[in-house]
Inverse folding.
């Protein structure tokens, strides 16, 4: 078990470009979460998958954001037409089926800078 | 929007000092509280998951207490070490939250040798 891995670690892009991030959760975890963290703030919830089903999306997640988890394993988060306000650390986490009693296991995050 | 407050925002202590932080959250619809430690350049790491009023959990020199009736939790670090320097995040899980944890802004601890 190598933990949750995210790729890439850093991404610099120009405003208006599309970017895609990948998350590989712990293999036996069926729950997968995406969070976003900006400087001085705690992580903000973006979306949640149970297996391949996207069960919850934050209102923060505009139409430019889309997430998938096609086979219930890895997940991708795509941001279309990036804006400077999208610059943040994007964190992926996974947990087992224990719900609120199960701690989240986070990856190292992808730091996005939009210039 | 769930109001989660952590105080202080930042804290500088000397090696060997004991310290504590506070996490406040709404007491109604409470289900569980998570504490995480986030060291620079690493991923957030779970410290505790607490559910019952009066819960007290301990991991080495770090301990936490929970008061669900008044909506707060304390995190204590005994004999702080430089390696304790990190941001400590709390996140309540409410019955009305769906599947999301709502994180506070964190307390940034710096332990000076």
């Amino acid at each position: 078990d190598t933990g949750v891995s995210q790729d890439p670690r850093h991404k610099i892009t120009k405003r208006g470009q599309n970017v895609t991030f990948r998350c590989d959760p712990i293999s036996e975890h069926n729950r997968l979460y995406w969070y976003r963290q900006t400087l001085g703030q705690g992580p903000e919830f973006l979306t949640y998958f149970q297996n391949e089903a996207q069960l919850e999306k934050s209102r923060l997640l505009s139409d430019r954001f889309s997430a998938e988890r096609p086979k219930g394993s890895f997940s991708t988060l795509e941001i279309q037409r990036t804006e400077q306000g999208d610059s943040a650390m994007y964190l992926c986490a996974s947990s087992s089926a224990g719900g609120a009693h199960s701690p989240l296991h986070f990856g190292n995050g992808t730091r996005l800078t939009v210039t | 929007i769930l109001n989660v407050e952590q105080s202080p925002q930042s804290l500088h202590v000397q090696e060997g000092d004991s310290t504590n932080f506070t996490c406040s959250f709404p007491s109604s619809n409470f289900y569980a509280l998570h504490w995480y430690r986030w060291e620079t350049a690493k991923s957030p790491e779970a410290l505790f998951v607490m559910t019952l009023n009066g819960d007290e959990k301990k991991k080495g020199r770090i301990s936490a207490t929970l008061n669900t009736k008044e909506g707060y939790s304390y995190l204590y670090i005994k004999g702080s070490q430089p390696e304790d320097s990190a941001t400590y995040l709390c996140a309540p899980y409410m019955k009305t939250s769906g599947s999301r944890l709502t994180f506070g802004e964190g307390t940034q601890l710096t332990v000076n040798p």
